[in-house]
Each structure stands twice: as structure tokens, then as C-alpha cells.
Amino acid sequence: MTRQGDSAPASRGADAPVFDATRLAQATLEVLAANGDDAPALARRQAGRLARVVDAARAGSALYRERLKGITPGRTPLADWPVVRKTELMQRFDEWVTDPALQLDALREFIADPVRAGQAFTGRWQVWESSGSSGEPAIFVQDAQAMAVYDALESLRRCMPHPLQRWLDPLGLGERYAFVGATGGHFATYVSTLRLQRLNPWMASRLRCFSILQPTADLLAQLQDFAPTLIATYPSAAALLADEAQSGRLAIHPREVWTGGETLSAAVRQHVQQVFGCALCNSYGASEFLAIGWQCSHGHLHANTDWVLLEPVDAQGRPVPAGVQSHTTLLTHLAQLAQPLIRYDLGDRLTLMAEPCDCGSPLPVIEVLGRCDDALHLAAPRGRPVTLLPMALTTVLEDDARLFDFQLQQRDRHTLVLRLPLPAAQAGAALARGCAALRAFCDRQGLPGIQIVGEAGPALQHGRSGKTCRVLGPPAAR
């Protein structure tokens, strides 16, 4: 059965990536056309795409038929539309999606196998799982239309610090790309990197993934051997690599570093650029929409509002004026019809700037305060310092212990405290799983003597981003 908005099944095996050349060509033309829009033209694009998404949601999603009852696009102010949240969507997954082939149990079975990361679910959808940073993991599917839009946005709007080199080598044949991050699961960036490898087999030897879960010494040795010219990673991992390069333990010379997934501070940006002598390009994305924002040549972050609506709102869900940081942000996906996202509470704090950028783009400038977890600096035997990255720690607790609502804090250079917001009578088994997973990870990192303390019951702290801070440095350092 095919419902409105579904991609036509492609003639390929399930292990092939989701790709449609015709859709990519169309998305490319539309992205290029929007670069010349003024505000009214951009608003018309948004309105047309929003109406299409609403039509598909009403036709195929029982949940959205209920939630959008009485809503008329173009007449009902967007601020009066209902807000949806991750917990509700996952609880009503089969009512949320518009294609009956997207069954939650089958998708969970699919992502339970790490070998299938990057493959297509039933030959039609890329699938990735979100982290549980808000306490609730989720599964997101991307059809050929959504993937074509992401591909077009990434290829056409990403800042190119070395345009002459790109002109001389448009296919990137001389580049060596390294993704340094969480691997082994169905995570959005990792899946996207594997998909790129499958789409371009000739790049297989020049595009590699490096796990941040392995011991730092092994990671450094692998990067040293690969000698990447371009590194894509998280800000905390980029800072760690810069520290290691500055100390002389890593000798690589990337021309570009791409960061995303965490808040990038001005200090980390400056540190990475100075140590490596390279350009740093930041981006903003989420499992819900992979390519929300891109950094222009002036260093500002622009939102791709021709394909995604972002509404910065206060704690009562009311729009905040330009220049004011929001309590949270509502996201509407204008390219996704199989799994509609309409006024979805993303959880990030965002500031929409009033002034246009001098780069000339008609797309708005945003400032984002997202995940702000800390890197932990511990002491190995004989006092040797070891840094544990927040993304690695959260991945271990999610994947190995199946914990999502937690807080891990460093008490001192030899002690970690794992907190769960549960009554003591209910927390025992979960704390045991979490402490065991952390102990095994610390052993692999050369930290066999680290003490891990489990605590139940205390409320979890929230950081400046509004989200629960899941990895905290020692109290004196905050």
C-alpha cells in the first residue's frame, strides 16, 4: 500500500543507501533558487511546503488528524497550532507515521543490529536513532525526498574556506575525510557517513570513521596513520585533538575541521584554529532534521528556513522576539512526509537575530545553545591525565546500560558519581548496569582505579541550554 507522499520503491537491495537522482536534482534547483529569495518569496516557499506536509499528515497519520483538527494552513496562526513532543510521538508511533510499513517493532529490530547501520530499511528509508538527551530516545526515518534535501543543503550551503582548491578538485579526490564520533550504532552522522561511502565506493579508502569510545592512544595512532585533511567531529572531541596536537602526541595537519552536535564556544573555536592552523566550520543539525543550520563565510550560523520552520518560544509556548533567547524551539520539517514533524518541541534554546548577515544570504542568522556537557579530566595510574569525552560517556550509558535519564558528575580526579532520578528501591538494577558499563569503559581508557558511585533520587540539574546536563565536571570547575 502506498500513501500520499511516499517515495516510489527503488530497484535496489536493502543494503543500498537511499538515493534518488531525480529528487536530488529537483532539490538542488530549489535550494539554489531560494538563495536569491527575498522575505516574501521565502515565506511563500514555506507556506506551500507546510500545506503539503499538513495534507500528507492528515491523509496518513491518525495522530495528526486528531491534533490538526480545525487547523487551516494560511488562516490559523501557526502559534495556535498544537505542540507535539517526543514522548507522545513514540508512544503513538504507528499512528504517527503515514506508511503502514513503518512498524515500530520492526524498526527497533533493525537498529538493534549495528551491522545494518547505513543500510536502507526495506530498501526505502534511512533510519537513525536519537540520543536520549531529553530522557527519551526516538527513532527517525528519512525517505528519498528528505535525503535529497539534506544532500542539496549540505553540498550547496556548507561554507568552503578554500574555494580555489574545491574548484581544482570538485570531487574531493585529494581529500581524506575522517569522522571522529560515536560509531557502531544507528546515529545520524555515522549513518550519513556510511551512506556516503556506499554511494561513492571510490571514496571508501579516503573516508573513514574513528570511534571516540576507543582508548585515546589508539584514536591518535589511527588518525596519525590516516593523516586526514578534513575532520568532522564534536567540539569537545576537536578540543581534545587540539590538546593532543599541542602536546606533541598527534601530528596531523587538517585544512578544515567541521563541528556539530554540541555547543561550540568561542574559546574552543580559537583553540582548534590556532593549534591546527586551519579553518573551523560549524553546523547545526539534529536527528529530527539533519541540516538545520550552516556557517557562512562571515562565521554566522544561518537556518535553512526554506526547508525547516523554527519557532523560538518562551516557557509558555509564546513566540519570543528577535534577539531574545528562547526557552525551547519548535521545529516543523518541510520535506518529511512519511514521519511528519509539525511544531515539534526540539528542546534547544535559540536566538533569532533581527539583522541580516553581510554575506548576503536571505536566510536568518541564529545563535544556538544546545548540548553543553563537560569533558572529564581524570588521573590514570602515576597521575597521567586522561580525558573522557561527554559524547563517549553518554553513548556507553545509552548503548551498554540502556540508561537515558541520568547525570554523571566528576567528584574529583579519581571518582565519578552516577545519579538516576528514581526512588532507591527502583534504582538498584539500573545503577548496577550503569556502574558496570562505566567501569568497563574506564578500564579500556587506562583508568582501572576509578571509583564509580551510584546515587538514586536527586533531581537532575539543568544547564544553560535548558536540557538536563548529563555529564558534569567537578563542582569547583563549573
Characterization of the model:
This protein has 478 residues and is of the alpha/beta class. The protein is built from 14 helices and 20 strands. Strands 4-3-5-6-7-8-9-14-13 form a 9-stranded mixed sheet, with helices on both faces. It has a 4-stranded mixed sheet with strand order 19-18-17-20. A 3-stranded antiparallel sheet has the order 10-11-12, with helices on one face. A hairpin with a 5-residue loop joins β15 and β16 (385-388). α1 crosses α7. The longest helix is centred in the N-terminal third of the chain and has 22 residues, at 39-60.
Rg calculated over all Cα atoms: 22 Å
Report the helical percentage. Answer: 25-40%
Strand content: 15-25%
**How would you describe the shape?**
globular
Spatial order of the strands forming the largest sheet? 4-3-5-6-7-8-9-14-13
Distance N to C terminus: 55 Å
Structural class: alpha/beta
**Average pLDDT rating:** 89
Stretches with pLDDT under 50, minimum 5 residues: 1-13
- SS summary, helix count: 14
The profile of the biggest β sheet is: 9 strands, mixed
The tally of strands reads 20
Question: What attributes does this structure have?
Answer:
four-stranded mixed beta sheet; single chain; nine-stranded mixed beta sheet; disordered N terminus; 478 residues; 33% helix; 14 helices; 20 strands; alpha/beta
